[in-house]
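Forwarding these from the shared drive since the link keeps breaking.
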Amino acid sequence: MHIYLIAIGQRMDEWVTQGYLEFSKRLPPECRLQLIEVPPNKRTKNTDIQRAVSEEGVRLLAALPANTLVYAMDAAGQQWSTEQLAARLEQWLGDGRDIALLVGGPDGLSEQCKARADACLSLSRLTFPHPLVRIIIAEQIYRAWSILKGHPYHR
């Protein structure tokens, strides 16, 4: 099973890249986390934000691998505990179906991405910088996997 983290943004700061890699590399091949970076629209003071988000959404959807179960990461989505994520991860591993997590840019995720998603998830009601979301997702997937394997990381 693959988990695709499809996110707006390229050439992140080194701390973002290192944070993401620290957790993604800990995952075993049967629970591989793969980042797919999608270029953001350029923004100026005259940018039509809705149009930029919509165009980013088109590119996010184009990057979706075939036959994936899609989750849109959105502040209004369902919130799962880490234990609930672990239970869902166990189900995903059993099903063998690939998963895609869509992460928007600084202005959020397009409506077409939310409509395409099988479900919307929220990491928190708090607002996080979109580069940090990559690290949080990678860490939480690793933590969920460690729960399933009885690893002491989650305590």
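-- next protein --
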Amino acid sequence: MQTLPASLAEHTFLAGLEPKHVEVITSCATAVQFPADRLIFSEGDEANQFFLITDGKVSLEAFHLERGSIVIQTLGPGDVLGWSWLVPPYRWRLDARALEETHAFALDGKQLRARCEEDPALGFELLKRFAAVVEQRLSATRLQLLDVYSRSY
């Protein structure tokens, strides 16, 4: 069985990260699992962590009064769940639900924000990686909006 640092270092999101930064991230990480159909977080709740998915599937959902939950994107192994821990006011922007049993590493966002303040190189590296995650989520949201509104007419 691999150690936590070795498992984290193999996650796609952390590929190529300096070993000293992987060590810092590892100090903020715990292994977690979510059963199928478990709500992981809800829009508007406090966001002080993010997840590196290693196994399973998670849906990102937006709630619409007339249509209920709309799946914006489905995430799986190698994906990152959550970026709201990085941007004030640190509130989730969507709901996240495990579609099947899901295993991940939970990273303590408060602790990691403090470590990034101490080490700007780590902060910059994480910011670059999370900018790509945010761009991906915006693209997925755009595609869902186009799909929803194309069916309205």
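Strands lie at 29-34, 39-41, 49-55, 58-64, 68-75, 80-81, 95-98, 102-108. Helices lie at 4-9, 19-27, 109-118, 120-150.

- D.
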